[in-house]
Amino acid sequence: xxQDFLAQWQQLKKLACDESVKxxxxxxxxxxxxxxxxxxxxxxxxVDFSKNWxxxxxxxxxxxxxNASQLAKKITHLFTGHNINVTENKPATHTLQRQTNPPVQxxxxxxxxxxxxxxxxxxxxxxxxGKRVETVVNIGIGGSYxxxxxxxxxxxxxxxxxxxxxxxxASIDDVRLKSIVNTxxxxxxxxxxxxxxxxxxxxxxxxxxxxxxxxxxxxxxxxQNNQSFxxxxxxxxxxxxxxxxxxxVLPFDNATGGRFSxxxxxxxxxxxxxxxxxxxxxxxxxxxxxxxxxETNFAQNIPVLMAMLSIWYRxxxxxxxxxxxxxxxxxxxxxxxxxxxxxxxxxxxxDVNGEEVSVSTSPWLFGDHGQLSQHAFFQAFHQSKDVLPxxxxxxxxxxxxxxxxxxxxxxxxxxxxxxxxxxxxxxxNCPGNRPSTTILLKELTPSSLGQLLSMYEHxxxxxxxxxxxxxxxxxxxxxxxxxxxNIVEHIQDDTLExxxxxKSTQQLLAKVLEHE
Length: 516
Prior knowledge:
Elements: H1 3-16, H2 24-30, H3 34-37, E1 39-42, E2 45-48, H4 56-68, H5 71-79, H6 94-97, H7 104-122, E3 135-139, H8 143-154, H9 156-161, E4 165-169, H10 174-183, E5 189-194, H11 201-215, E6 229-233, H12 236-241, E7 249-251, H13 268-274, H14 276-295, H15 302-316, E8 321-326, H16 334-346, E9 364-366, H17 370-373, H18 378-383, E10 390-397, H19 401-419, E11 436-443, H20 446-467, H21 475-492, H22 503-514
Parallel strand pairs: 3-4, 3-5, 5-6, 6-7, 8-9, 8-10, 10-11
Antiparallel strand pairs: 1-2, 2-11
Helix pairs in contact: 1-4, 4-15, 8-13, 8-16, 13-14, 14-20, 15-20, 16-20
């Protein structure tokens, strides 16, 4: 780290020692325009940072830290094709995927995806049973599952108008497989195998399990056009090995990371659920947030401010956890998507040079639908000895009595966390001064959803720049996968004794194999 960065880091450590920064009521009394001065709006997204443990001096130092980390240059690198994924020596191309005019190959891939969707939606192409598609089952895991799932769920109203429903088959689960078979007409189902590498064990096993069920049926007769599978992948040769014709392979760029890939052909289930026009609006919304991120001064830049606040809490206030609480049922699974995005990207202990990072990186992230959470873990938010920052997310319109009730509850919770309560009986006291950020969407549309997801993507990227880590690889995830593959291969070869496992794992594996 350069000297300027280290100096700003030391300055922030000093500022963190001032306990008065945690007195939110005092901070509001000292600045009558605090709420407006710490609120920002871009397109359909309004963010109020005023209930956070920050002062103008802290914000200034955080911005200086961002500048000292050469964040502006790193943002430029993100959008101009530099090899910022240093361990794999390639760029990160998810922002290109949602551009109005992306590179030629990406527009070709997008147009092919649109054409395949049109062919199936119109009935020009049928399943391998000669029947129109009524259901799409997304066979994928990680980003290949969470991205489409949060987007489809968020845009439920659009899917309800669609003639196609979307289901998910993520983990290797016999119960889930039986549920799909028993609750859908698999002869009218299109199975979308979604995997960047087509090397993910869970996805391949699930795809082969489905295929084995289909081929047993006498009327399963795939043709060049009538297929029950499409494959979204960056590994086209492997897709064709699965037995899917090239016309049904939906390629995307190899430099688009899995957890950032909903904008690519991994979004095919979303496209089938909401249609081409809405899908393009989804991409355009993300592009609007990209423009804001690229062009806005850091002091008014929403993703930058969110990231720097998270750095402040994680590294200087020593808050280890972070909650995201949407007060809209359609955003219920946003925290699960964000868990992967943040913790898989930045839960690392080595920097881009292979040196051990000297500070903590990704916070532990969790969350759920706000109304349900109020009757579950909010008790700890209000009275636990531990404190964590919270993002409250609300949707303003279209206004209904139910939505108004949810929004009032959300605002009441953030106010209660800040103001607390004082009671003669100590066990009823709530200390208050608990920090939170409130994010409001005008409506939940494809465009506003694109803006929201893009905002969090950029937040994660800024975090990685400050920590000097690569947010586009996941070596820890790969370790578990490789051990599992090794065990499975040796079981198949009857050479399990050659696998070197610790005594506990040996004992547990023996228990598993006893019940074959």
